[in-house]
Amino acid sequence: IGSSAARHETSRLRAVSPRCVAAMAEGLRTLSMDEVAKHNTKEDCWVVLYGKAYDLTKFGKVHPGGAHLIYDNAGKDATALFDPIHPKDIMEKLLKPSLTMGVVDSATIKDEHIAKAPAPKAAAAKKKPQAAEGSQKAEVEDFVKPPLAAMLNTFDFESVARETMEPQAWGYYSSGGDDEITLRDNHLAFQRITMRPRILVNVREIDM
Asked: Is residue 125 predicted with pLDDT exceeding 90?
């Protein structure tokens, strides 16, 4: 009988999604996305990040990026908007465990539950440089991401990031607020990163 019960329990767990199994292991309840979607106001605001639902009703008021970014996504899965800007474990560090409301069953998440980024504004047309008289007409080429081996210092990485990151993410990483102390500290930290020079090669024997 005991063996039969064990097989039954094993079969039951196999039918449950891995996310639900993880919820049981952490002592969290499993939620459906429809249940989360009911908490969709700034007075009652749940947001799903990486499969977990968090009560951000109070946190939204002190969110460094502005309360509207939290409340506009109340009752939704905002992982896609959150991921480019924040570390994955930041909510676990900032919030009390009691504000983790549960793990959302991924099978219940529909397209309408997923927060969408606002439509990007059309980029302003780049002015073409004027060609000198008598020379060929200058053209502006689209940015092409260089290979990793071609980037030799942190300034190279920054210039590529400026062209390739989402505007919201780039604005977050490259700007500062108030006295910009953190921004300056970040610059100093990156200046301490040294990369192995690529010009030190054996030149004892060279082909002229």
From this structure: no
